[in-house]
């Protein structure tokens, strides 16, 4: 088990590793470290004296507190070794694996790839289907909802959602669930699902994964993030979904009767269960794509959340920055000069707007489909294939796609002609896959 | 400074000179401060003078009649800026929603420029303004049509803007983006007229009531003398494993605050960003949740005591659906009730 766990731990910083170990040792935690007072006889015989077990939990806590205090004297690798080969030599629990992943996510904004999904009420379509007097119900609804407690997004309590989701999928998908609250800049509750290889059709006596590799397999993990009070859900189906399922299929040939566990299908089941778990009688939801996928969770929150940019990036980002004038009182007679930034005077600055600041959301991968591209550009750049009018797909990738395009534009009109540059190139749409 | 540098180094060692140059330095600093204060005062006086209508009319009258040489040259820009500033202030004070033209520089919108920009200012209880929210509308058709659709906005997602757009700005012809969700409304000719005022009113209503709810909670915290401890609206980060799932996450308050506000209330905070739910924690471990309507009245309340729901206190909190602002009185009654029962 060791190399896999050590690898996932070594992504974290030294402080984070120690904090994690301390959090595992809290009183209400169930993870049992290897201690002098709980080792068994055969374990004593196998002991290798490299990491002497602690007396009890309190003593172990003291050891890790000491690590915390000592600062730089202890290397991260030593701490990890102590965790993997010493105090948790029997293996980590699924909860511990989940908390490692979340510690990494908190440190590294771009740890996963998130897609934003929008919750749309299903009731609307039913109204059209009922369709005797179609305008009447919608008009009535408008009046009712003006002051009614129907805010246009579901009121989600993460615990209730989790229970509902579990009830929804448990016949088909067996999973370990972990709820995590991301603090201030995110204000999100994230559910991590570790899908166990056992299905209902293939129950096994123990649901404990036999090997650590199975427990950390990123193909089996998916995340569902529930932002506060907005009609969006962010999901991350991390890892390569296809290969994990196939690998499991190969092991089936050992003669044991097993149902094939296809991870992609499992995740699809979970995805389909999300809107059902959020729904209530008279209030049903469906998911639809918002064409936004990004690695940075912060960007997803900015673009599809209760933040400022909304859909206003690029030329409109002027309106998202904090202005001094807005802070002043309207009865203040004194004229205050606002520092006008020279950045916004230039044509490039006007088009791209602010690319720094708290509300700026960077995208790492943008896919564009341009229709009838060749026909339009035939006169400027003669192409051997100039006759057929095909669609072209363009994918930009990098740490910050639109900042790169801006840099390109700053190099002069030879690279990007600002007068002909379409609006999507400034990133003001706030989507990562679009049709131009 | 020039003075300190000018005397030759030999003289510097002389203590008398040293004292003197120090005194001079101090004087210079004083004079500078005075100049600054006076300039500030002059600015203030000038802008207050200029903002008064009488002075302005007289000045412009004077400028119109007198020959241009007689008027001081720097007066005109000052007058102009004061005028625009006061106009701007009046707009913010009086309307709260202002329309302005906006030129989008991108090539595909050149034919549709200028866009209709709408700016929504919301005043908070200290008399200051939040950052304004913006809404940009663009003509939906090519030419001739007056139909608008929302192009860009900076409005947080808790306002269901897309729904409002469908309700208030239905498009005559589909073909722009939202066609897959074409509503029943589109088929009916009489609902098809666009209601931009309705849209802005609705969005502003939502934003204002959001703001009001947040502020009422802040106000309550102040009146209950709860110290501003943590960030509002964020409960302490916690990990809940599926095994140890707490009931609605409410009973896991182990972080003991020593400070207790009035009526034995330890904490009043909004549960999430939109402040539609309020969480109250009493010092004796009772936990309450309130649901707030858009008008700011308490719709529903749940109080969970040590072992069960405390129905009579819930009834006090929702009796006659009081305003959230009057929560203090309710809490006082709740406190009296619970102390009477305790005896």
TrEMBL record, chain A:
GO terms for biological process: CENP-A containing chromatin assembly; chromosome segregation. InterPro entries: Chl4/mis15/CENP-N. Residues 128-153 are annotated as: Disordered. This is Uncharacterized protein.
From TrEMBL, chain B:
Coiled coil: none annotated. One of its GO terms (cellular component) is nucleus. The keyword ATP-binding does not apply. Keywords: Centromere, Chromosome, Nucleus. It is found in: Chromosome, Centromere; Nucleus. Residues 244-257 have a biased composition (Acidic residues). Residues 228-257 are annotated as: Disordered. It holds the Pfam family CENP-O. Its main location: nucleus. The keyword Flavoprotein does not apply. Belongs to the CENP-O/MCM21 family. This is Cenp-O kinetochore centromere component.
């Amino acid at each position: 088990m060791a190399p896999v766990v050590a690898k996932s731990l070594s992504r974290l910083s030294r402080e984070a590793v120690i904090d994690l170990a301390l959090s595992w040792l809290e009183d209400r935690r169930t993870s049992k470290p290897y201690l002098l007072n709980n080792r068994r006889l055969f374990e004593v015989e196998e002991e290798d004296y490299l990491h002497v077990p602690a007396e009890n939990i309190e003593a172990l806590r003291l050891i890790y507190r000491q690590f915390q205090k000592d600062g730089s004297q202890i290397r991260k690798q030593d701490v990890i070794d102590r965790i993997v080969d010493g105090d948790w030599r029997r293996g980590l629990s699924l909860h511990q694996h989940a908390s490692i992943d979340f510690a990494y996510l908190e440190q590294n904004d771009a740890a996963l790839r998130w897609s934003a999904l929008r919750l749309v009420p299903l009731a609307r379509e039913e109204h059209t289907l009922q369709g005797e007097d179609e305008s009447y119900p919608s008009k009535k609804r408008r009046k009712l909802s003006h002051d009614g407690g129907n805010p246009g997004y579901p009121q989600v309590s993460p615990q209730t959602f989790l229970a509902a989701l579990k009830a929804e999928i448990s016949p088909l998908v067996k999973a370990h669930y972990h709820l995590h609250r991301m603090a201030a800049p995110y204000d999100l509750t994230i559910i991590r699902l570790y899908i166990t290889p056992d299905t209902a059709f293939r129950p096994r006596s123990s649901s404990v994964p036999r090997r650590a590799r199975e427990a950390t397999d990123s193909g089996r993990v998916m995340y569902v993030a529930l932002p506060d009070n907005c009609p969006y859900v962010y999901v991350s189906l991390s890892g390569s979904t296809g290969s994990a399922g196939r690998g499991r299929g190969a092991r089936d040939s050992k003669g044991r009767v097993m149902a094939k566990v296809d991870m992609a299908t499992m995740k699809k089941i979970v995805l389909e269960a999300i809107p059902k778990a959020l729904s209530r009688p008279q209030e049903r939801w469906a998911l639809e794509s918002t064409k936004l996928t990004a690695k940075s969770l912060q960007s997803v929150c900015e673009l599809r959340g209760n933040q400022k940019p909304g859909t206003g990036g690029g030329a409109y980002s002027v309106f998202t920055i904090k202005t001094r004038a807005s802070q002043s009182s309207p009865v203040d007679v004194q004229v205050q000069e606002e520092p006008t930034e020279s950045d916004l005077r230039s044509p490039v600055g006007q088009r791209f707007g602010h690319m720094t600041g708290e509300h700026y959301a960077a995208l790492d991968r943008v896919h564009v489909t341009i229709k009838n591209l060749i026909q339009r550009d035939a006169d400027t750049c003669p192409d051997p294939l100039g006759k057929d009018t095909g669609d072209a797909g363009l994918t930009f990738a990098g740490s910050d796609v639109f900042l790169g395009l801006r840099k390109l534009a700053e190099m002069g009109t030879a690279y990007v002609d600002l007068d002909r540059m379409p609006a999507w190139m400034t990133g003001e749409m706030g989507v990562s896959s679009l049709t131009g | 400074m020039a003075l300190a540098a000018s005397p030759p180094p030999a003289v510097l060692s002389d203590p008398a000179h040293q004292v003197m140059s120090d005194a001079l330095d101090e004087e210079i600093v004083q004079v500078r401060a005075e100049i600054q204060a006076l300039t500030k005062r002059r600015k203030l006086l000038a802008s207050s003078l200029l903002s008064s209508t009488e002075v302005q009319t007289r000045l412009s009258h004077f400028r119109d009649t007198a020959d241009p040489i007689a008027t001081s040259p720097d007066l005109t820009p000052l007058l102009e800026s004061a005028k625009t500033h006061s106009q701007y202030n009046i707009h913010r004070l009086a309307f709260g929603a202002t329309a302005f033209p906006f030129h989008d520089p991108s090539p595909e919108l050149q034919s549709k420029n200028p866009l209709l920009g709408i700016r929504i200012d919301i005043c908070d209880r200290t008399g200051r303004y939040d950052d304004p929210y913006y809404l940009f509308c663009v003509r939906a058709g090519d030419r001739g049509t007056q139909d608008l659709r929302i192009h860009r906005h900076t409005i947080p997602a808790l306002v269901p803007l897309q729904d409002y757009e469908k309700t208030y700005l239905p498009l005559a012809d589909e073909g722009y983006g939202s066609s897959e969700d074409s509503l029943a409304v589109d088929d009916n000719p009489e609902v098809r007229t666009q209601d931009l005022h309705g849209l802005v009113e609705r969005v502003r209503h939502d934003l204002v009531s959001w703001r009001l709810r947040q502020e009422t909670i802040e106000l309550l915290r102040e009146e209950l003398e709860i110290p501003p401890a943590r960030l509002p609206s964020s409960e302490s980060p916690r990990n809940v494993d599926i095994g140890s799932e707490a009931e609605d996450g409410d009973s896991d308050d182990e972080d003991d605050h020593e400070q207790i506000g009035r009526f034995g209330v330890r904490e009043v905070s909004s549960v999430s960003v939109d402040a539609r739910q309020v969480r109250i924690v009493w010092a004796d471990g009772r936990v309450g949740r309130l649901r707030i309507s858009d008008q700011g009245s308490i719709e529903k309340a749940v109080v969970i005591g040590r072992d069960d729901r405390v129905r009579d206190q819930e009834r006090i909190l929702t009796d006659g659906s009081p305003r959230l602002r009057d929560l203090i009185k309710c809490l006082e009654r709740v406190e009296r009730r619970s102390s009477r029962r305790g005896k």
